[in-house]
Amino acid sequence: MQFIVYLLLYPFLWLISILPFRMLYAFSDFIYIIVYKIIGYRKKTVRENLALALPHLSDKERLDIEKKSYHHLCDMFLEMIKTMSLSEAEMDEHFVFTNLEVYTNLEAKNKSISLFCAHYASYEWVISMNKKMKIPGYAVYKKINNRYFDKLVRDIRSKFKAILISTKDTIPTIRENSAQNIVAVYGFASDQSPKLASVYHWGSFMGIEVPVHTGAEMLSKKYDMNVIYLRTTKIKRGYYEAQFEVLTENATEVPNYELSNQFLKLVEQQIYEAPEFYLWTHKRWKHKK
User: Fold this and answer.
1) Where are the beta strands (DSSP E) in 154-257?
2) How far is 222 from 248, CA to CA, in rounded Å?
3) 101 burial via Cβ count (<10 Å: 0-12, 13-18, 19+)
């Protein structure tokens, strides 16, 4: 059954991928009507999240952010599909790294790098970074139940040489690479809610005490990685800029949980600046204190 669903949908996805950008975003506007106005996908979750995280805003202001966030969500989903046929030149035009030298300077130090990023702006197109790297780049992701679509997502994200590893394969992969003295970059999007059974630390996120993913920090410390944050901003529809910020070059000397807390503060700054570009559909505050 999974294969049949995949066969039925794949031609449609390919047609979407070859649409010119203007038509792609016109189609995104249509998808927005279906997702937001007709289906109301996770609308209750989004409203609860916005009320919790941005209580200082009026109902009208939060509603405006809600609508803009769904427009962005639809854009980003179609942009991921667009990657199927996107050329390297087009990617470089639409996703620009403004201070790549910060990364290349770290890469030259011959230590593995832990890249912290958030579900903000275009986290899908961060994969284009791999074309600018001399060392392997691994992106941690959550597997999709349908194995055929899971392979499609891996193929799409691997187009620019990104290597996808599932959450359960992350530790074995880093351990094996370290044992073989393979220097690499590991990308972690750690701003979502962890399972309570695996919580080691609670921290403040948007003024709310929540469980925090600490795996990226602990691995960075255990394997003495340099740690950087990638701040991605949306300039206009379909255009993004990404800036690297060094968090530490001595992870082993940083007190436990300080890097995780610092990461959340940086994500907070971006949300306060332009909240409509955050992924509000995830239940980030479901385990709040």
Assistant:
1) 162-166, 185-189, 202-205, 208-211, 226-236, 239-248
2) 14
3) exposed
Q: Tokens standing for 185?
A: 């970059």
CB 122 within 8 A of CB 79: yes
Total Cβ atoms within 10 A of residue 196: 9
For residue 137, give the 3-state DSSP assignment. Answer: strand
How far apart, in Å, do the first and last CA atoms of the chain sit?
41
Question: One digit per residue, pLDDT tens: the chain, 289 residues?
Answer: 666 766 667 788 889 999 999 999 999 999 999 999 999 999 999 999 999 999 999 999 999 999 999 999 999 999 999 998 999 999 999 999 999 999 999 999 999 999 999 999 998 899 889 888 999 999 888 777 777 667 777 777 777 888 889 888 999 999 999 999 999 999 999 998 888 878 889 999 999 999 999 999 999 999 999 999 999 999 999 999 999 999 999 999 999 999 999 999 999 999 999 999 999 999 999 888 7
Instruction: Report residue 84 as tokens.
Output: 């199927």
142: number of Cβ within 10 Å? 10
Q: Is the pTM of this model over 0.85?
A: yes
Rounded CA gap, 192 and 283, in Å? 8
